[in-house]
Give the backbone structure.
Amino acid sequence: MARMDCRLTGQTPIDGAVAEWNNITAENRVEVFDRILEVNGTKGQAPDLVKALAADTETMSITVQRPCERQVKLQKPGEIGVILNYKKVGSAAPWISNINAGLLSQWNDRRPAHAVQTHDRIVAVNGAKGTPEELMLKMKEATSTLDLSILHYAV
């Protein structure tokens, strides 16, 4: 079964507990694309974390993971070898749902310490940001060099 993640996407909240936290701290701010790992001691799948977030508690302890950005340069022609996914409403960037044989798997084989993995997100293609649809179209239409900015979540 595929791992379900609980991530902040699109924009950080402008009101509520996260916004209050971000207003009082310059360090450790919650940012777009941070992944929630734990809520009040509860770890698990997204539904478990959402349930814990909805609990009526006086205080809340949340552990988040910040992704690191990786620059991946692929030379076409050739199949990229990825299956991307996104939600039509609310996704700021497509995530990699599967890596098949192709240019990206070859890149990973040459750089195992920096390998791109499933659930990583593509946030720019050839220096351009955009909607998930725009990014996927740019990847499809690229004919030579493909520079990808990818947010990687350590396992």
Summary: Residues 132-141 form the longest helix (10 residues). The chain is about 25% helix and 25% strand.
